[in-house]
Design a protein that fits this description.
By secondary structure, this protein is α/β, with parallel strands linked by helices. Helix content is 53%, strand content 13%. It is built from nine helices and five strands, in the order E-H-E-H-H-H-H-E-E-H-H-H-E-H. The protein has a five-stranded parallel beta sheet, sandwiched between helices.
Length: 204
């Protein structure tokens, strides 16, 4: 059996990363972690990340139950742009540590062939040296914009703002080993995944 692969999944907002991962989850022996969800987990009370964030932001960002209040934390970040970098310097290493611990556990159990981590900012957060492969989910910008308007109710102004904050298409392509074109039918996207993964995994 092939050695387990650690694969990063990235792409711009509205590219359909979640849809692609849903297909992979159903058909392959894998573990999938969303970096945004892991970021919430590492900020739970009792963690080192939580302790550092409360020390940085103050206890006024806490809810009555001790959880970090997202909106209050956001206020602190927007009030001082240097705070965002400090928060990222705390959260990003904690996320990486969490993922690498679970990666090691998956290797030790031997029951997983593919270990995925997904985030729009994987490249910027320095994951390229950590993963075996980086995948870029590409979707035509017009389609992405329509999806964001229809499914999330985003305004054109909000879409513009998010897209400008993310990498350009060529930057994604330059930093990724494999591109899935998710601009057409779901089945065409699935065919690209099957062709890529059949070399070192199996479909149920």
């Amino acid at each position: 059996m092939q050695e387990m692969k650690f694969i990063g999944i990235t792409g711009g907002v509205g590219a359909g990363k979640s849809h692609i991962l849903s297909f992979i989850q159903k058909h392959y022996k894998c573990e999938i972690y969303l970096a945004d969800e892991v970021a919430h987990l590492v900020k739970e009370p009792g963690t080192e990340c939580y302790r550092q964030l409360v020390e940085l932001l103050g206890k006024e960002v806490l809810e009555e139950n001790g959880q970090i209040h997202k909106a209050k934390m956001a206020e602190k970040i927007f009030a001082d742009e240097t705070v965002l970098q400090k928060v990222n310097d705390i959260v990003h290493p904690a996320v990486k540590e969490y993922l690498l611990e679970h990666l090691q556990k998956a290797k030790e159990t031997g029951t997983v062939e593919l270990f995925f981590v997904e985030a729009a900012l994987l490249i910027e957060a320095g994951y390229k040296p950590l993963v075996d492969e980086m995948w870029y989910i590409y979707t035509d910008e017009k389609i992405r914009r329509k999806r964001l308007r229809d499914s999330r109710g985003y305004t054109d102004e909000k879409i513009d703002r998010i897209m400008k904050s993310q990498l350009m298409e060529q930057q994604y392509r330059d930093n990724c080993d494999f591109v899935i074109d998710n601009s057409r039918s779901p089945e065409e996207s699935y065919d690209q995944i099957r062709e890529k993964l059949e070399a070192y995994t199996w479909i149920d």
